[in-house]
Amino acid sequence: MVHKENGKGAILVIGGGIAGITAAVEAAEVGYQVHLVEKEPFLGGRAVRINQYFPKLCPPTCGMEINFKRIKSNPLITVYTMAEVVEVTGPPGAYAAKVTLRPRYVNGNCTACGKCGEVCRTEIPDPFNYGMDRIKAAYLPHEMAFPMRYVLAPEVVRTDEGTRCQQACAYDAVDLAMVPRTIELRVASIIVATGWEPYDAARIDNLGFGTVANVISNVMMERLAAANGPTHGRITRPSDAKEVKNIAFCQCAGQRDENHLPFCSGVCCLASLKQANYVRQQYPDADVYIFYIDLRAMGRNEDFLTKIKGDEKVRLIKGKIAKVTEDPNTLDVIVEAESIAAGKIARVQVDMVVLATGMVPSTYRQKIPGEGARYDDDGFLLDSPGIYGAGCAKHPLDVASSVQDATGAALKAIQSAVGR
Ligand SMILES: Cc1cc2nc3c(=O)[nH]c(=O)nc-3n(C[C@H](O)[C@H](O)[C@H](O)COP(=O)(O)OP(=O)(O)OC[C@H]3O[C@@H](n4cnc5c(N)ncnc54)[C@H](O)[C@@H]3O)c2cc1C
């Protein structure tokens, strides 16, 4: 498939999070053909799983909806979901990219009426909620999903269940004959906006993730607090759904540690301050302990830090957590840390612990195919002629900075595509 309009080469954007979406609309709105390739069944990336954005604490949908509208109304953008780039060949200015599209088993006729989900009995762990609950195998990824279209999990496709889902659909939208297919795109430049993955907290053996029932990670906390999350927004502890009367946050769970992530993820302090606020809003009597090495709040986000500091129920303790264990009778979590200010060991017993794990670039695990892409030692993308990073693929960033960064990446990609 060759797209070449008005003498301008096309741009391939890999990753449909806020950075990829921004780069796509910015480039398309000045007249460039854009192919936006996203591996999940929906656009929005990690940001749509956040309950509220700091610093304004607004829901992620507000900014996203405007972007989805811009995509829908722009014929120059082609969106491919459940899609991955499997091969890139050719020089800058004339790349050939092969993209494999996984079958969704639901076509464009879908109205998201939900009838297939109603008749489906098989359940799978909900990927949107990091597996904290289960959903039907015929599912809408989340209620604001773009595209607003169901997905059939492969496990039910060649079963009676798949046939039942197909028969329940009044719009002929369930297509059980779909198979993976590969297309080729000719593009002049590539924007890599593949974002980040949470650091695997189970690798930090002293912090109890995976062994202590009531230790969760910060991304899980976002889902627990969200109205469309596994507990419908009630922040309760996983072992017994008990309300949270006291909670500890462990900053730098892996970050700034040569054994795990040697860099600072930049947003985790603000995320924990925000999550402390979620808890305090829901439980006005709850005690919050935040253990930190340094509290970092970039730019005007300092105001947010100052606001949370003013809450006498939020205790900020400078000290790295040494040990997290479980009281076998109550399943409370016991946290021990060296309090630097007090010069002694601080020990608290809490209902729940949140590990503020950091951001690992997705390209650490999965590199962009071909010879052209370059990375730093931590796996973040480095710009090279014709291939440009955007958002957290390039460095840890908050949403606003990812948007700015992606706009810059769009400009670089446009410069490479002019006249190609
Ligand atoms: C706990 C926590 C809370 C946060 N809260 C806030 C907040 O309140 N406010 C704020 O401003 N920021 C917050 N952030 C930061 C925010 O999540 C990021 O700024 C944002 O996700 C960056 O967007 P992105 O598009 O660069 O990456 P992502 O959101 O990771 O999007 C990348 C996209 O690329 C796709 N992808 C990955 N690999 C491939 C591939 N090989 N092929 C195709 N597609 C691929 C992914 O599926 C995803 O859709 C928080 C971060 C954390 C850890």
Explained architecture:
- This protein starts with 10 loop residues before the first strand and ends with a helix.
- The chain has helices spanning 18-28, 61-72, 115-119, 154-157, 160-168, 218-225, 268-282, 302-309, 362-365, 399-417, and strands at residues 11-14, 34-37, 77-80, 83-89, 95-101, 123-125, 134-136, 138-139, 151-152, 181-187, 189-192, 196-198, 215-217, 246-253, 287-292, 314-318, 321-326, 333-339, 344-350, 352-357, 359-361, 374-375, 381-382, 387-389.
- β6 and β7 (134-136) form a beta hairpin.
- α1 runs parallel beside α2, α1 (18-28) packs across α10 and α6 (218-225) packs parallel to α7 (268-282).
- It contains ten helices and 24 strands.
- The protein is α/β, with parallel strands linked by helices and 420 residues long.
- A five-stranded parallel sheet has the order 3-2-1-11-24, covered by helices on one side. Strands 13-20-14-15-16 form a five-stranded parallel sheet.
- Flavin-adenine dinucleotide (FAD) binds at residues 14-20, 37-40, 45-47, 50, 53-54, 84, 193-196, 218-219, 222, 267, 271, 274, 359, 362, 366, 391-392, 397-400, 402.
- The site of flavin-adenine dinucleotide has 38 residues, from α1, α6, α7 and α10.
**Biggest pleated sheet:** 5 strands, parallel
The helix fraction, in percent, is 10-25%
Q: Could you give the distance between the termini? A: 16 Å
β-strand amount: 25-35%
Estimated structural class: alpha/beta
Mean pLDDT reading: 95
- Which molecules are bound in this entry? flavin-adenine dinucleotide
The overall strand count is 24
**Shape label:** globular
Query: Gyration radius, to the nearest Å?
Result: 23 Å
Uncertain runs with pLDDT below 50, 5 residues or more?
1-6
- Number of H- or I-type helical stretches: 10
Give the strand line-up of the largest sheet: 3-2-1-11-24
